[in-house]
Amino acid sequence: MISLHQTMATRSLTGYAPRTRLLFDGDERKYELWESKFYGYLHTLKLKNNLEKNPPNTDKNADIYAELIQLLNDRSLALFLRGARDNGKKALEILREHYMGEGKPKIIALYTELTT
């Protein structure tokens, strides 16, 4: 029989699946799927709509940033750590450009993958 403690340990504070499933490991092939899950998570927190506002609410944007930094590996976090502090909307834009953009980082990642 499952104890109450075990049941509570497997749920997040919102009652949805554990946040550990939302951790992003830096694998660019999985970024788009992770981003979709993250937007769903923001929706449950009533924060997703803030990303569509221009300019976004400063407090809610900082809340998005706070949630985001807890779910990224160090390398991904370093991409925007100084350039988007407390700005979740900008941080997500930087991540999307890096992992899904057609620019130089994508070419370097492909070269690295081919040479290893």
Q: Rg from C-alpha positions?
A: 16 Å
Written as H for each helix and E for each strand, in order along the chain, the element string is: HHHHHH
Largest sheet features: none
Intertermini distance: 48 Å
Number of strands: 0
Task: Tell me what you see in this structure.
The chain is mainly α and 116 residues long. It has one domain (18-115). It is 53% helix and 0% strand. It contains six helices and no strands. It has helices at 4-9, 31-44, 58-69, 74-78, 88-100, 104-115. It starts with a helix and ends with a helix.
How is this structure best summarized?
By secondary structure, the chain is mainly alpha-helical.
Quickly list its features.
globular, single chain, mainly alpha, 6 helices
Topology:
Elements lengths: L3 H6 L21 H14 L13 H12 L4 H5 L9 H13 L3 H12 L1
Helix pairs in contact: 3-5
